[in-house]
Amino acid sequence: MKLQKIVSRLQELHPKEIDLSLDRIQDLCKRLGNPQEKLKTISIVGTNGKYSTIQAMFAVLKEANIKCNIYTSPHIKNINERFVFNNQELNDEELASLFEKIEGANNNEPITFFEILTAAYFLKASQYPDNINLIETGLFHRFDATNILKNNLASIVTSIGLDHLDWLPENEQTVEKIVYEKTSTLLNSNIIVAKQSNKEITNHIKKTISSNSSNKIFYNEDYSFTMKENDFFYYEDQFGVWRNKVANAKCKRSISIRECLNSYCNSKNFK
Asked: Residue 205 — pLDDT band, cuts 50, 70, 90?
């Protein structure tokens, strides 16, 4: 199959699956005309809940008739899942054609598989300049291939915990270090911080982004939500209070995700 053959070739361009650096992705995107600079992006960083956050945001934006491009990883069944443009996954033929363009531009230079996938996403997404891009950042974000954007609409920080410890020296395998890797290079726009598992993590996030000039929105300070008796959900921010009956358990699990997006949409800097 054509797509599988191209994928196999792309996977052989670098001896390592992960090689933390931004140089290769920057060089390739420069050859492609820096398509990442043409995108309207919401970046999603964190440890847990990134994919579900993106899917909830996608549902809300579709309801508002706003078209999206979505980049996530890893995929579950097939690689096409990572590439959503104009609200639709690319089919095999479209994805193979996209990969061929990137393969040609790369000219057999060493580059990791994830980096070349990211460049492919940026190039295709630039064909839809009016769409909002929901981009999941991988690993630690600071040296993640998605972290070559120069501006974005917002960064959403989901729950952060201990993950990918094998990429850190033993004396740095702490939540504080992980928070730093995930949030120290967030862009200056809007930063929405979701509910964290404890106050210590929230404080680490505050410390790390203290010099960031973004409009910062923290759970339990700038917005809050709670489930009360008879399954009623209450949400509150500076613009008022919203109350609604929650229909089922699945709806309850997605509440905090949707309210992160509501907080962003309510922020004064949203355009």
From this structure: very high
Rounded CA-CA distance 158/254 in Å is 13
Short-list 118, 119, 184, 121, CA closest to 157: 184
Indicate the pTM of the whole model: 0.90
| 96 contacts: CB under 8 Å, gap ≥ 6 | 2, 3, 6
Q: Which residues pair with 47 in a beta bridge?
A: none
Please check the confidence at residue 265 and state whether its pLDDT lies above 70: no
Neighbouring residues of 240: CB distance < 8 A, sequence distance ≥ 6: none
Give the ranges where the chain is alpha helix by DSSP (H). Answer: 2-11, 23-31, 50-63, 92-106, 113-125, 175-183, 199-208, 249-266
CATH architecture of 2-266: 3-Layer(aba) Sandwich (3.40)
User: How distant, in Å, are the alpha carbons of 75, 155, 161, 174, 217 from that of 204?
Assistant: 31, 17, 12, 11, 15
Predicted confidence (pLDDT) per residue in 45-60, tens digit: 999 999 999 999 999 8
Structure-token pair, residue 103: 């393969």
C-alpha triplet 211, 264, 57: angle, nearest 5°: 125
d(CA 201, CA 79): 33
Distance spanning both ends of the chain, measured CA to CA:
44
189-214 as b/e: b if 16+ CB within 10 A:
bbbbbbbbeeeebbebbeebbeebeb
DSSP string, 131-195: SEEEEEPPTTSTT-TTTT-S--SEEEE-B--S--GGGS-GGG-SHHHHHHHHHTT--SSEEEE--
50, 134, 234, 182: CA torsion to nearest 10: 40
